[in-house]
Predict the structure.
Amino acid sequence: MTDYIQLLKSCNLKATPQRISVLKALDGQTHPTIDELFEQIRLEHPAISLATVYKNLNTLKDEGLVVEINTPTGKMRYDVFYMPHIHVVCANCGNIEDMPCDIAFDKYQKDIEEKVGRSIKRIEVLATVDSCSCC
Amino acid sequence: MTDYIQLLKSCNLKATPQRISVLKALDGQTHPTIDELFEQIRLEHPAISLATVYKNLNTLKDEGLVVEINTPTGKMRYDVFYMPHIHVVCANCGNIEDMPCDIAFDKYQKDIEEKVGRSIKRIEVLATVDSCSCC
DNA sequence: CTATTTGCAAACCCTTTGCAAAAAT
DNA sequence: ATTTTTGCAAAGGGTTTGCAAATAG
């Protein structure tokens, strides 16, 4: 289990209960939509506002702790991004599956960096498939 | 120059002047936003409606001829996708640079397909960089 | 002639913003 | 004590929709 207070402190962010809840909820669900997150967080914080969740997600995004994934269904999904990985997105239902990065991938990233001539902050691979286990 | 009418016919889409204009505009600009497209198209079609442009982009997206790219600035950008390639997205200004796919990439896609156990419809690589030539 | 597409305006939905009160450090 | 964060409600912005008229095949 992650020490959320420590994590936030290291980013110079105040460790409010709401913010900790957002982090917890992100850790507890895989690629949640905002509604899924909101619902989850409200179990702990019935009075939290949707705006607060959005604000915190943006703050965490700025710190690079969270990434937004735009799905083919138009719904944004959120992901904690401690470890780089590949997103396999279903074109049909918007479901997302993670795939760990392997050595081949790291090498590939280096290739791209060389070509671009600039260091890459984050590399995101979206593999779109026509259907998934849930559709 | 592409034969747009032929292209559309092969997709069972009616070749309206508006639709052809959308294709032309997509070919003429790199990764335009909807506004850039709209402005361009209106040079030829002053009376075209924004809704028509959106509808056509969605239709072309369904055919796989166009991809949407979600930029860090929140503005969606559009791209003709005849040939797979990599998008290098600037986290700062949302500018996008193309990078051609090479053999290493194709091999990488095959690796992913094998792991996912499903054939990949489209693979999109977003490499995020901190700044670009224009910022 | 039939099916699709257009254009308009309104509706929609998700996300952001402004501001005063509350809370964290 | 200072700065950040919260919550509310309202505003914002981009995208979609419904429908009648126009157009493509």
Q: What stands out?
A: Chain A is about 40% helix and 20% strand.
